[in-house]
Specification:
Distance between the termini: 39 Å
Order of helices and strands: HHEEHHEH
Strand order of the largest sheet: 1-2-3
Largest sheet: 3 strands, antiparallel
Oligomer: single chain
Structural class: mainly alpha
Shape: globular
Number of strands: 3
Number of helices: 5
Helix content: 55-70%
Amino acid sequence: MALVFWVSFWTFLLDQVTKYVVVHMLDLKTVGSLDVIDPFLNLRMAWNYGINFGLFASNQDVMRWALIALALGIVAVVIVWMLRDPPGKLGLISAGLLIGGALGNIVDRVLYGAVADFLNMSCCGIENPYAFNVADITIFIGAFGLVFFGGSESGKSAGDAPRKSR
């Protein structure tokens, strides 16, 4: 679990530092956008009051607290999973990425009432109107990592114990 803790910690810290720099130091909340490597990488301020791409953002206050509760529940489930049936190293890293990213977005919802999204990437004549953040990236990678590497280290889960024949 130490690996899960440290990956979560560094993921959370990276997410919060990047958000602080972009929102406050670069003042993207006021400026709105900055071209970095146009069109491949730009900073576009977006406050996400809902889930992915702002879905279900109609009742902002209720959705804010519901999403905080949901994210805390997911973090708790992943921690219990890692304690009960720890996977190999890549599974533990994946769990840490997911937990750190989820906690980063929870802090945004508590502090700002919404998640601070600011990364925007487009390519090849296709303009992407959506923004995301470091936490979104780590949640995505962590979730897929848990799908592929989340099995127990021995390859068997507790429910796969051999059964006695009668």
